[in-house]
Amino acid sequence: MLRVRYAPSPTGLMHVGHLRAALPNVLLALKEQGTLVLRIEDTDFDRNKIGSEDGFYQDLAWLGFTFTEGPHAGGDYGPYRTMERATRGDYTAAAQKLLAMGRAYECFTSPEELDLLRKIQTSKNEPPRYDNRHRDLTEEQKAKYRAEGREPVIRFRMNDGEIVFNDLIRGEQRFKTENIGGDPVIVRSSGVPLFTFAGAVDDLAMGITHVIRGEDHIVNAAVQMQIYEALGATPPQFAHVALMLDKEGHKMSKRFGALSIKTLREQGYLPSALNGYIASLGFAEMPHANATLEELAQNFDFARVGKAPVRFDEDQLAHTNTTNLHHSVWDDIAPYAMPFLPSYATSSQMETLWPMVREGLKTLADIPSALEPILKAPTPQAFTPEDQTFLQTALSALPATFGPSTYTDWTTELKALTNRKGKELFMPLRRALTGQDHGPELANLLPIWGPEEVKTRLQSCCRGS
Question: Half-sphere exposure of residue 313, counting CA atoms within 13 Å on the CB side?
């Protein structure tokens, strides 16, 4: 049974970078009918934000992601927060096992010593790395350090040689342990596990079969391969997706604040646009506008996921959103559109109005401006004397009752009465009735307004003369 997980840290708002990390897990789980697990990795106390976890739940639900297991859903492999598992003793037990085997050790190197080591290495044009100086401390040396008040971290003892594993996207990966940066810390002096260690322990305990994440974690995978081996476990399969850059090819991190899912939702973007656009950046082709997650999942294939970085283009996202709006039906769009409806509009009205207004929308936030000329009387416009005379004639010729052909019959009579045609005929009518130069077809709007509303709007313009 395929089991994948999405494991965000609650350090702020969910943004498009998080979405790129989550989406391939969602698509693979849907395609293979596997289990999708949500895990909250909350070990970064300095960066954790109050409300961030709840914000992730709201955004993930809005995006349409359904997790089989997680803090909010429960499950047989919980708890699903790192610190709850730490309190239970999961990482202490795993660390003790590694210590007993000689695959982990206490390190008392001070921050000042580490900083000096880095400076020396940098001055020699060497890459900074821990030199494993406390690998083989005696008990007497440990006692001496403790007497000085030093609190040890726990480091994992890397085996020398080459680490080889297959990545489902990037193929065979080879790392020499001497190039990884020395023995990594797996437990801080506070007792809190680091991501590399906690993630590996959790993935094993939760039966995760596939770890899909960004390529910036590929070195972590090399370390984790040895952790899995030391714990006597079979590692999951890894797939590291290419990084996402901005339109100009720069890192996205500076743009994430303005590209949070919450902000995009409040600006009137659709979840189908976000999911579809991110999927198109190397995960799956959109079969059509407003493709569902299930439809996107059918096109997901690791063999088609590229290795090169992809570029996030905000203009293309906006285009995708506009296209999806223009191809949407009210019943599907209503749950997302309702927060944007002005107080004078109802959902029942929108069933009729939506096909008329959707072509003029770029985001759902444009709905009020699209509805205002339809549902609210426009501000009287300024007209030339000739147009005023024409509008008086239009008012006199207005039918007492409206039917499907009212607009055609009315304008045909006005052509005969005034010798006007084309833009010279319909533009004054549009401006008088809507206050705008563009918008839905008047033929569609007349039956909605009815003769009394049209008469009132025309009279208002005539009075304005």
Answer: 9
